[in-house]
């Protein structure tokens, strides 16, 4: 059979007939003789890899992804500067769930889950302990007439109606002017007593952005009428996934805010609660639904991490950020959904902005989603329209939100107290019902001194390299050289 | 409205799918017209995504706005509504039964997500706790087909033999 086939092909001479010459050569020889080789005694195996990477509790993650994160952390640790790390993390353009902080009602529950925060009514104990130590009563009695005078001047004596040509921003401009009348004299007075206040930075209209990864529920893709990629029926999980992981329950979130007024200082504020305490670990409200359910959308954008200052700024820690409670979006929410929903939204607004600012500050100290915090970050926020003040205090304990609750039991903390009125009314050009307690809490927020924590602030950054400096020398320094060609003495008596 | 035209064979559209006639513009001083029976309709459906218990999903007339949905529920059924979101959905493709290419598309439709106020919640009833009789028959058919295929596959290599020796 085989011979006949070969003959057939030889006659026809196909183009690759030279290959068939192989059969006619006498190259193939087999023999029964086998050359014995000496057996190698030492057996070599590849090195044994442990099942899970060492050093952390991984929780619900698959082994493959745990190894991926382990490699990524080492990759990031090898980068010596903060700028390189942030560039590496924000280089890829992926889909993210953009959170709008003051757009939809009943979202506080949702924000608490995404940021893993526990809400507490009232202020932390640190403020009540400040009463005995510092003599705030003397400061209040000194500053009260100045501030009352400023409020009266804003209301009656000055006519700023020409400024208010934009109707939507009318209340916000008024609030900004009123708050400046209150803040600036206080700042001037306190800077004499507190040295940290002299070197602080006072900024306006600052952009604050941050991104983070969170453990959540599974999502499903829906085909909409105006979907550009309608031919690609993918799951929504694929869109919002973090850069490197393929887990179906991990999502990346980003929030963007413009904070009206910010004050920054050189050293971090004291921690409200130590990390070992029972408050820092525990339960928080869970929300196991997709962001689309509440109306938030997924956008393809570059990630960003902006705390409101450049790298190498001397003041890298937050003291206070001031928001407007009569913001145009918030007032629209109040008009549509009522007063109760407005109060909830106000807490959500204060919570989210302070969380974002803390996260972006942590990024500038060398921490990431992969590199866990070694000490808590703290900030204070005030939301007011000039009359009613609502105070917030936030403590960031974790950044590893992509872990399961069993693997990472820590949670973040937020204290809040709403609707504290500084004064009741202004009648006939005079302030009535000025409350000292509210003014005292405002003074406490401003005069809270930053401390030396006794910890290394940048544990994941190499100490050999110098830190970046923000100031650029646009005009090169010139050194004057005095060249004396010929010395002339006019009055000999004076020279001696 | 492609599909309805094809199925009926003419350009007749059912009443509930038709466009709403234009409402006369009100000028000050004129008598105000009122419509007591508008051509609006709402159909409650099961939620596509898992969502909190105060959410309800409707398929509505595509010309209904958010305010229309809100007033429809509040004035007729006396249910307080907190928030309404709407979105347009594309109809599914209708394929040729044997060839598989797209003949037409089903009609586009509007979906309204309603968030109920006053702490009211709603759970969509589970109508078919057991499977419907049609679904049961279909499952049986598929099972039988698979079983027959498996029997037939065993005899592939013995196809040339007479059945006695298989």
From TrEMBL, chain A:
Keywords: Mitochondrion, Ribonucleoprotein, Ribosomal protein. It is found in: Mitochondrion. It holds the Pfam family PDCD9. GO terms for cellular component: mitochondrion; ribonucleoprotein complex; ribosome. It comes from the Eukaryota. This is Mitochondrial ribosomal protein S30. It comes from Sinanodonta woodiana (Chinese pond mussel).
TrEMBL record, chain B:
It is found in: Mitochondrion. Signal peptide: none annotated. SUPFAM superfamilies: Ribosomal proteins S24e, L23 and L15e (SSF54189). One of its GO terms (cellular component) is ribonucleoprotein complex. This is Large ribosomal subunit protein uL23m. Belongs to the universal ribosomal protein uL23 family. Keywords: Mitochondrion, Ribonucleoprotein, Ribosomal protein. It comes from Sinanodonta woodiana (Chinese pond mussel). It comes from the Eukaryota. It holds the Pfam family Ribosomal_L23. InterPro entries: Nucleotide-bd_a/b_plait_sf, Ribosomal_uL23-like, Ribosomal_uL23/eL15/eS24_sf.
């Amino acid at each position: 059979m085989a011979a006949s086939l070969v003959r057939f092909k030889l006659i026809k001479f196909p183009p690759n007939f030279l290959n068939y010459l192989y059969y006619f050569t006498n190259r193939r020889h087999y023999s029964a003789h086998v050359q014995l080789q000496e057996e190698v005694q030492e057996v070599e195996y590849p090195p044994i890899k442990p099942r899970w990477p060492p050093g952390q509790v991984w929780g619900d993650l698959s082994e493959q992804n745990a190894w991926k994160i382990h490699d990524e952390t080492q990759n990031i640790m090898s980068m010596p500067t903060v700028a390189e790390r942030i560039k590496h993390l924000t280089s890829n353009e992926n889909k993210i769930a953009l959170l709008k902080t003051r757009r939809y009602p009943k979202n506080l529950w949702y924000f608490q889950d995404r940021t893993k925060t526990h809400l507490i009514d009232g202020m932390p104990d640190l403020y009540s302990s400040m009463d005995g130590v510092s003599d705030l009563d003397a400061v209040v009695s000194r500053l009260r007439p100045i501030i009352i005078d400023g409020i009266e001047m804003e209301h009656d004596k000055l006519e700023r109606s020409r400024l208010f040509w934009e109707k939507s921003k009318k209340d916000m401009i008024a609030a900004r002017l009123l708050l400046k009348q209150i803040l600036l004299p206080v700042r001037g007075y306190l800077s004499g007593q507190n040295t940290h206040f002299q070197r602080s930075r006072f900024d306006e209209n600052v952009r604050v952005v941050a991104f983070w990864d969170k453990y959540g529920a599974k999502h499903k893709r829906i085909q909409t009428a105006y979907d550009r990629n309608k031919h690609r029926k993918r799951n929504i999980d694929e869109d919002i996934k973090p850069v490197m992981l393929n887990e179906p329950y991990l999502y990346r979130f980003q929030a963007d805010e413009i904070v009206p007024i910010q004050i920054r200082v050189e050293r971090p504020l004291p921690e409200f609660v130590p990390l070992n305490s029972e408050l820092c670990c525990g339960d928080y409200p869970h929300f196991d639904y997709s962001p689309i359910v509440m109306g938030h959308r997924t956008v393809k954008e570059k990630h960003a991490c902006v705390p409101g200052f450049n790298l190498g700024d001397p003041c890298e820690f937050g003291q206070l950020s001031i928001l407007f409670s009569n913001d145009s979006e918030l007032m629209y929410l109040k008009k549509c959904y009522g007063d109760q929903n407005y109060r909830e939204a106000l807490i959500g607004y204060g919570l989210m902005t302070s969380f974002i600012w803390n996260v972006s500050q942590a990024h500038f100290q060398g921490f990431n989603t992969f590199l866990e915090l070694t000490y808590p970050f703290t900030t204070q926020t005030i939301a007011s329209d000039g009359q009613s003040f609502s105070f917030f205090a936030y403590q960031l304990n974790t950044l590893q939100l992509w872990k399961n609750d069993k693997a990472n039991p820590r949670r973040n903390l937020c204290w809040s107290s709403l609707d504290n009125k500084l004064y009741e009314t202004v009648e006939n050009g005079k302030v009535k019902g000025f409350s000292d307690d509210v003014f005292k809490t405002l003074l406490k927020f401003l005069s809270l001194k930053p401390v030396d924590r006794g910890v290394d602030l940048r544990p994941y950054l190499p100490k050999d390299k110098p830190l970046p400096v923000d100031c650029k020398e646009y005009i090169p320094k010139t050194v004057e050289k005095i060249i004396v060609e010929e010395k002339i003495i006019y009055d000999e008596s004076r020279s001696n | 409205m492609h599909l309805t035209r094809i199925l009926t064979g003419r350009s007749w559209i059912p009443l509930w799918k038709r466009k709403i006639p234009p409402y006369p513009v009100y000028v000050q001083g004129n008598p105000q017209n009122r419509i007591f029976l508008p051509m609006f309709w709402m159909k409650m459906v099961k939620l596509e995504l898992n969502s909190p218990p105060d959410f309800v999903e409707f398929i509505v007339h595509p010309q209904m706005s958010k305010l229309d949905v809100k007033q429809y529920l509040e004035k007729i059924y006396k249910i307080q509504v907190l928030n309404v979101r709407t979105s347009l959905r594309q109809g599914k493709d209708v394929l040729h039964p044997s060839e598989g290419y797209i003949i037409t598309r089903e009609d586009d439709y509007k979906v309204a997500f309603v968030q109920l106020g006053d702490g009211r919640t709603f759970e969509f009833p589970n109508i078919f706790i057991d499977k419907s009789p049609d679904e049961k028959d279909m499952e049986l058919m598929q099972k039988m087909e698979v079983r027959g295929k498996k029997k037939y596959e065993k005899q592939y290599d013995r196809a040339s033999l007479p059945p006695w020796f298989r």
